């Protein structure tokens, strides 16, 4: 490459010959100078812009908007978490109210001390105070504890319900199983088995026990059941028969007056008749029988079974 050089003083000119490598080096130097000038010019201009109050205000406002957005998002997330915890606590409170009611009913059914098992008051707890081991519970730990408590409550409810069913069955069994005396006052005047007939004096089998007392006194059912017979029967006078389930029946005879009719449901201890002297009898009393599968058995064990 040939470059023509012209002198500013003399106006003379002369050629300058450049080789290939010299020309490349010259171009690199020129391009570098132009790039460096542009870079430093940009930096100088940038510094002058940053230092202007208007631009600084714009940057600060943009940063504040970003931070406010993050804060609002965090508040929304916290509000959602609190709402979810509130719903969960509401569910647990409902379950606790139900468990308290169930516990109170079990105390009553099981004849437990209501003062000892008071479900209305929180249980008494305590322990030694050591400030060095106290630690504020974190939110994740609190949520985990809450879920564990909810799981325990959900697991306890079926157990208490099963216990209630067992107690009800036991209570029902105690109600329908014959036990106790058929009179509130009086005395046993004749036992079960062979005896001298009170009217003929001959040996005869007595398939029940007799309780003597005041005429018109109450005769009560020794167990809950359904009346299957209430009528006058020859020899036994006014008679009431009650079926208690599981093959058990009881009879009450020589009554002055029957107070129940066939089909009536009776409770344990309910007055079903008044003591009298009807039928083949020598005085006011009740003839009491216990039957299993229609066959009479000695009632004495059932009479003594009353607690």
What does this structure look like?
This protein has 307 residues and is of the alpha+beta class. The protein folds into three domains: 2-50; 70-121 and 137-176, no CATH class; 187-304, Distorted Sandwich (Glucose Permease (Domain IIA)). 43% of the residues lie in helices and 25% in strands. It has four helices and 14 strands. The protein has helices spanning 20-50, 53-109, 139-176, 300-304; strands at 2-6, 13-17, 187-190, 193-196, 203-206, 209-212, 218-220, 225-233, 237-245, 248-258, 265-266, 271-275, 285-292, 295-297. Strands 3, 6, 7, 8, 9, 10, 11, 12, 13 and 14 form a ten-stranded antiparallel sheet that branches. It has a two-stranded antiparallel ribbon with strand order 1-2. A two-stranded antiparallel ribbon has the order 4-5. A hairpin with a 3-residue loop joins β8 (225-233) and β9 (237-245). α2 runs parallel beside α3. The protein is rod-shaped, with a radius of gyration of 52 Å. The chain starts with a strand and ends with a helix. The mean pLDDT is 75.
Summarize the structure.
By secondary structure, this protein is of the alpha+beta class.
Q: Which features would summarize this protein structure in a list?
A:
14 strands; Glucose Permease (Domain IIA); 10-stranded antiparallel β-sheet; 307 residues
Q: Quickly give the structural class.
A: alpha+beta
Q: What would you say the CATH architecture of the largest domain is? A: Distorted Sandwich
Mean pLDDT: 75
Radius of gyration: 52 Å
Helical element count? Answer: 4
CATH topology call of the largest domain: Glucose Permease (Domain IIA)
CATH class (first level) name of the largest domain: Mainly Beta
Number of strands: 14
Helical percentage: 40-55%
CATH superfamily of the largest domain: Glucose Permease (Domain IIA)
- Terminal CA distance reads 132 Å
Number of domains: 3
């Amino acid at each position: 490459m040939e470059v023509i050089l012209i002198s500013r003083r003399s106006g003379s000119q002369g050629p300058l010959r450049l080789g290939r490598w010299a020309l490349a080096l010259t171009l690199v130097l020129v391009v570098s100078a132009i790039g460096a000038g542009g870079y430093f010019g940009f930096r100088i201009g940038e510094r002058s812009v940053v230092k202007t109050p208007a631009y600084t205000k714009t940057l600060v406002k943009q940063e504040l908007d970003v931070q406010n957005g993050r804060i609002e998002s965090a508040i929304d997330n916290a509000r959602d978490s609190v709402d979810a915890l509130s719903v969960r606590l509401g569910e647990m409170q409902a379950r606790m109210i139900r468990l308290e009611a169930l516990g109170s009913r079990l105390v009553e059914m099981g004849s437990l001390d209501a003062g000892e098992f008071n479900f209305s008051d929180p249980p008494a707890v305590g322990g030694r105070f050591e400030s060095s081991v106290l630690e504020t519970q974190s939110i994740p730990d609190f949520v985990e504890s809450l879920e564990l408590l909810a799981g325990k409550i959900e697991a306890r409810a079926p157990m208490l319900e099963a216990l209630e069913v067992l107690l009800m069955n036991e209570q029902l069994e105690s109600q329908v199983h014959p036990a106790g005396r058929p009179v509130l006052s009086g005395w046993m005047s004749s036992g079960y088995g062979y005896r001298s007939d009170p009217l003929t004096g001959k040996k005869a089998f007595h398939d029940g026990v007799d309780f003597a007392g005041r005429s018109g006194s109450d005769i009560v059912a020794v167990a809950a059941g359904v009346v299957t017979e209430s009528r006058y029967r020859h020899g036994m006078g006014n008679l009431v028969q009650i079926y208690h389930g599981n093959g058990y029946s009881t009879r009450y005879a020589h009554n002055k007056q029957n107070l129940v009719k066939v089909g009536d449901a009776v409770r344990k201890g309910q007055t079903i008749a008044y003591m009298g002297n009807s039928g083949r009898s020598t005085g006011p009393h009740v003839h009491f029988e216990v039957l299993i599968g229609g066959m009479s058995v000695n009632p004495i064990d059932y009479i003594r079974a009353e607690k």
